Amino acid sequence: MEGASTLATLLGAATLFFLLVTGGCGYSLRGTLPSHIKTVAVPVLVNRTPEPAVEGLLTRAIVEAFSTNGRLKIVSPEDADAILDGEVTGYALDSIAFDPAANVRQYRLTVTLNLRFRDMKRNEVLFQQSGVQERADFQVLGAVADTISREESALRLAAVDIARAIVTLAVERF
């Protein structure tokens, strides 16, 4: 039994040594974004939902997320090394909480997208993902105007979260 304990200790020490040596040098098991991709274009998403203007809000959020990430510069499609395009395929508002009189008190907003990230220099798809979703919950205060305002706020929050996830997919998944 003592031999197994010594073996486990040696294995643990070897693993720790490997992590320390590789951790400090930037080594990763993932690849990196192809080095020739320095710029990205994000055309306005296609809206396949009945919800008006949702595509503009989501597109602006994605552009902002790329801008704040700093890895890729936003440019026009004709100047881009890569293009991220997509479509909004779902916009669902679900009741998730009720008061004792069965009035809705909380909603969940779910937005769904299909995305494609293309390398324009090599004319290849770097990734394509369907069904990317984000959710945001919001409470109903009572007045319809307040509910609409809260839905718009929830959509903005969901858009920011989706945009961050999309940028992570685009620049860090390789």
Description:
The protein is an alpha/beta fold. It has 2 domains: 1-30; 31-172, 2-Layer Sandwich (Double Stranded RNA Binding Domain). The protein is built from 3 helices and 6 strands; from the N terminus they run H-E-E-H-E-E-E-E-H. It has helices spanning 2-23, 54-69, 144-172, and strands at residues 39-41, 46-47, 73-74, 82-98, 104-119, 124-139. Helix 2 (54-69) crosses helix 3 (144-172). Residues 4-31 have low confidence and may be disordered.
Spell out the blueprint of helices and strands.
Layout: H1 2-23, E1 39-41, E2 46-47, H2 54-69, E3 73-74, E4 82-98, E5 104-119, E6 124-139, H3 144-172
Parallel strand pairs: 1-3, 1-4, 2-4
Antiparallel strand pairs: 4-5, 5-6
